[in-house]
Amino acid sequence: MVWAGILGDVWRTEERGLSVSIYTLGTLLGPTIGPLCGGFITQYSSWRWTFYAISIANACIQIVATIFFRETFAPVLLARKAAKLRKETGNTELHTKWERPDRTFKKLALTALVRPFLLLTTQPILQVLAIYIAYVFGLMYLALSTFPILWTTQYGLSISIAGLNYLALAIGYIIGTQVCTRLLDVVYKRLKETRGNGTGIPEYRLPLLLPGALMVPIGLFWYGWSAQAHLHWIMPDIGIAIFGAGVKFSLQCTQLYALDVYPTYAASASAASMFVRSLAGFAFPLFAPYLYQSLQFGWGNTVLALIALVIGVPAPFFLWYFGPSLRKRSTYAAGH
């Protein structure tokens, strides 16, 4: 959750596209590379080593992060500077505008816990972003939950070889990253020059959300009907790759837009969005067996794709036209 605050602190608005792209690619590759490795570990070792490997990797990452990560949040850095000046000068009146005598650790912790839910319940912009990206994430984990059934049962592959099909989703993410990253900052700078007279606004992040919102249902259609027709294995993989590229476009655009709208509260906005999408990622795979048992892959994915069209396509238009007025009325958005 802290990633949004760190990236917002370190990079300027025109330069955030690459940094957000690299981060979001990592979060998406995990659920695809993990099952691939897990399939080989389970087949040639034991299921216990899947947990051992995860624990070892997490421990290494935590150690590296603890050693090399530094504070980037401006209010904290200024508070430290003010404390140093108070000590050097003896002037106890030196405080930053964020420092208050009544701000105890308990109050700060309570604020940090409450603010994400406050943003989620009071900010229409964040609500639209959270609902759409939660649905996309739910679809992603739902699609991942169908892989074992499709590739081992319908296509008759072994667990380890079936896991190789997760690479199709990873390839879609990587292609989406390459295309979206190259275009996002270019589009932002172009719109800033042509429409903003040199001044950028968060809505300049939204144009690429539309192709992402279209690729998601297109990939679902392709994947579902080619799987139901039992076509060559490359056909469902192409569909899931298109879907993956759409997920990457959607996630990157929405995350950058939220980061630009709520730069001071980027971590809280990210936490709110992550809370909703995590619930969707948990809930969607639960009804996957019932959905595909009743409608099979073709019609099941068709229903999901139509819902994605209804939710995803209007989102960039709504935020483009109403985003500026919603930001002006918000006490959390940039400029307030």
TrEMBL record:
<dbReference type="InterPro" id="IPR036259">
    <property type="entry name" value="MFS_trans_sf"/>
</dbReference>
<dbReference type="InterPro" id="IPR020846">
    <property type="entry name" value="MFS_dom"/>
</dbReference>
<dbReference type="GO" id="GO:0016020">
    <property type="term" value="C:membrane"/>
</dbReference>
<feature type="transmembrane region" description="Helical">
    <location>
        <begin position="20"/>
        <end position="42"/>
    </location>
</feature>
<dbReference type="Pfam" id="PF07690">
    <property type="entry name" value="MFS_1"/>
</dbReference>
<feature type="transmembrane region" description="Helical">
    <location>
        <begin position="204"/>
        <end position="225"/>
    </location>
</feature>
<dbReference type="GO" id="GO:0022857">
    <property type="term" value="F:transmembrane transporter activity"/>
</dbReference>
<keyword id="KW-1133">Transmembrane helix</keyword>
<feature type="transmembrane region" description="Helical">
    <location>
        <begin position="274"/>
        <end position="292"/>
    </location>
</feature>
<feature type="transmembrane region" description="Helical">
    <location>
        <begin position="49"/>
        <end position="69"/>
    </location>
</feature>
<dbReference type="InterPro" id="IPR011701">
    <property type="entry name" value="MFS"/>
</dbReference>
<keyword id="KW-0472">Membrane</keyword>
<keyword id="KW-0812">Transmembrane</keyword>
<feature type="domain" description="Major facilitator superfamily (MFS) profile">
    <location>
        <begin position="1"/>
        <end position="327"/>
    </location>
</feature>
<feature type="transmembrane region" description="Helical">
    <location>
        <begin position="125"/>
        <end position="151"/>
    </location>
</feature>
<protein>
    <recommendedName>
        <fullName>Major facilitator superfamily (MFS) profile domain-containing protein</fullName>
    </recommendedName>
</protein>
<feature type="transmembrane region" description="Helical">
    <location>
        <begin position="298"/>
        <end position="322"/>
    </location>
</feature>
<feature type="transmembrane region" description="Helical">
    <location>
        <begin position="163"/>
        <end position="184"/>
    </location>
</feature>
